[in-house]
Amino acid sequence: MSDIRMVIGGLFLLYGVILVVAGLLGDAVNLWTGLAMAVFGAVFVLWARIRPI
Questions:
Q1: Residue 27 confidence (pLDDT)
Q2: Among candidates 8, 33, 9, 7, which has minimal Cα distance to 20?
Q3: What is the dihedral of CA 35, 40, 42, 45, to 10 degrees?
Q4: How far apart (Å, rounded) are the C-alpha atoms in residues 47 and 25?
Q5: Distance between CA atoms of 5 and 50, rounded to whole angstroms?
């Protein structure tokens, strides 16, 4: 179960970083969306590493 959470969190984190880079190059919407996705992905990966459930 934690492997699935790790993959999902990693994908959110990766796509969030891509959007942050795109946002730094131009559109502010990409920047804020990317930051939110990167934070969500990092929390998801951290949750998978700690395994509270």
A1: 84
A2: 33
A3: -160
A4: 31
A5: 11
CA distance 45 to 18: 17
Residue 8 has what pLDDT? Answer: 92
**Token duo for residue 5:** 């959470």
Cα 27 to chain center, whole Å? Answer: 19
Token pair, residue 15, equals 């796509």
- The one-letter code for the residue type at 13 is L
Please write the tens of the pLDDT for every residue from 1-53: 568 888 999 999 999 999 999 999 988 888 999 999 999 999 999 988 887 66
Judged on CB neighbours under 10 Å (0-12, 13-18, 19+), 47 is: middle
